[in-house]
Amino acid sequence: MTSFKQLELIDPLLRAVARENYQEPTPIQAQSIPLLLAGRDILGCAQTGTGKTAAFALPMLQMLTQGNAVRGKPAIRALILSPTRELAAQIDESFHAYGRFLNLRHLVIFGGVKQHAQVAAIRQGVHILVATPGRLLDLVGQGYVHLDQVQFFVLDEADRMLDMGFIHDIRRVLKLLPSERQNLLFSATLPPDITRLAGSFLDNPARVEVSPPSSTVEQIEQRLMFVDRLDKHELLIELLSRPGMSRVLVFTRTKHGANRLVKRLTRAKIPAVAIHGNKSQSARRKALAGFHSGEIPILVATDLASRGIDVENISHVVNFELPHEPEVYIHRIGRTGRAGLSGVAISFCDATESADLRSIERLIGDEIPVDADHVWHSREAATTAHAPALSSREPPSRDRKKAGRPQPKTRPCPRANPSAGAGRQSVVPVRDPGRKPAGSRRRRRRVFRNPSST
């Protein structure tokens, strides 16, 4: 078994990882650290919670320490780009922990807060800068940040970067960097877009992929619950009342959906808080702090905001709504079952989400076990999900009948439809004979008279 000492890390870093109670390097760390110390570019892929930050932070700190010291105010020699504020703050905390015995300055900058404190810290000089693209380019444009001495560039969570539309900002940042540098790209998944982006700036990279992109953590128990869309709130409230639901992360697709869900849980006297892009930075910090301390047991999050959530002992992840992208499912459930611990991932599925469910099961290569032991089990949703021939665009049959809207009457059209093929007839709505067709009301003619003629 490989140890951190066998990775030839310097003593201050070994003391730091011992202070963090790291017993042995994870697979992504064991493979990446020697390559980075040898000066190679890295294209890394690993599931969430596998230690990607330490995989690039530890060798980067060692090389910055052993490099030639520059007199005067420290210059930015390492740049780490992150898609979200929470993840950027988390990376900066990791640099603080790993570099506690080193004389290196680090700083995190992101939007959503005033820039005065960030600018003051930059003026004092920093070696390592962790940033979100928007605030970084803003301060570059104002002349506060200079990237001409960067030796190490890290693009973290690259798949989320592209999902959030940061590709143009990434290219602008790359143009500001020196041509001679070491590049690292880490991502939870490696779709074709990420591979193309990596090829645009990585120089003969070593590919480190410790697990297939479609795999899920073995310690996570997955469950699937079929439920009607209008019953999801009641099912979630019933689940949260069960024993063992101590710290639960609930995923929704939209920010408004997260807010509505928190209001519904609050009315049911279940303490919960939402975190998403529309929340202020102070509100997001307060929400994460409450969830981390256990004061708030339920955190409702969107996918983009969840990238910075690194909380231990999350007992359950609940997919209140299935993601449209199957890779996102793997990232969501990876929030539990971290660091070798067990966890439970529960997914709700209504009749409109059958196509999303089939995409997820194709990606993971297995069917998610169904839990039908609840009073809100929907046979219609289960039947729809297990009917491959059903079009994902076909609306569920419950919509018109249960909403009280009458279905339109139809009759065969006597005119033949050549494109429909032999033996088929077109179907057109039957109009109520007592109702005038739209647009048939006679318009009143306006008569303009000459005032002089009256």
By CATH, the superfamily of the largest domain comes out as P-loop containing nucleotide triphosphate hydrolases
Report the strand count: 15
Secondary-structure class: alpha/beta
Q: Percent of residues in beta strands?
A: 15-25%
CA(first)-CA(last) distance: 108 Å
Tell me what the CATH architecture of the largest domain is: 3-Layer(aba) Sandwich
The total of helices stands at 16
Work out the radius of gyration: 28 Å
- How are the strands of the biggest sheet laid out side by side? 3-4-2-5-6-1-7
Q: Helices, strands, pairings?
A:
Blueprint: H1 11-19, H2 27-37, E1 42-45, H3 52-66, E2 78-81, H4 85-98, E3 106-109, H5 116-124, E4 128-131, H6 133-141, E5 152-155, H7 158-163, H8 167-176, E6 182-187, H9 192-201, E7 206-209, E8 220-226, H10 232-240, E9 248-251, H11 255-267, E10 272-275, H12 281-293, E11 298-301, E12 316-319, H13 326-333, E13 343-349, H14 354-364, H15 379-385, H16 398-403, E14 410-416, E15 425-429
Parallel strand pairs: 1-6, 1-7, 2-4, 2-5, 3-4, 5-6, 8-13, 9-11, 9-12, 10-11, 12-13
Antiparallel strand pairs: 14-15
